[in-house]
Design goal:
The chain is mainly α. It has six helices and no strands. The chain has one domain: Serine Threonine Protein Phosphatase 5, Tetratricopeptide repeat.
């Protein structure tokens, strides 16, 4: 299977999983400097940096949401699909994270 087809399949799996994100009013707040940078200049690298920060601080739902924002700007990024799957896996949603990448 080509990498492009794999990424497309992962994207469809991701879309199916997004409804599983906590919607209980979770407010994602990272470091002020990162948030200020994204407000003034939103880009995929900034969202990826913030998503990584959330992951490092065990805020996996926030990490997924932030990586999704980056994915909107770079929809063909395999790295972002990987980071989203890793965040799901780290949140003990391993079946979701692993299913994103199964053939």
């Amino acid at each position: 299977m080509s990498i492009r087809r794999t990424l497309m399949k992962a994207g469809m799996s991701l879309a199916a999983c997004l409804g599983s994100l906590p919607s209980s009013g979770v407010v994602c707040k990272g470091p002020q400097t990162m948030q200020t940078r994204l407000r003034s200049r939103p880009d995929a690298d900034g969202y990826t940096e913030l998503g990584t920060w959330f992951g490092d601080h065990n805020q996996y739902a926030c990490a997924v949401q932030t990586f999704q924002s980056a994915l909107k700007l770079e929809p063909k990024s395999g790295r972002l699909y990987y980071l989203i799957g890793l965040s799901w896996y780290s949140a003990s949603s391993s079946s979701i994270g692993l299913n994103m990448f199964s053939a």
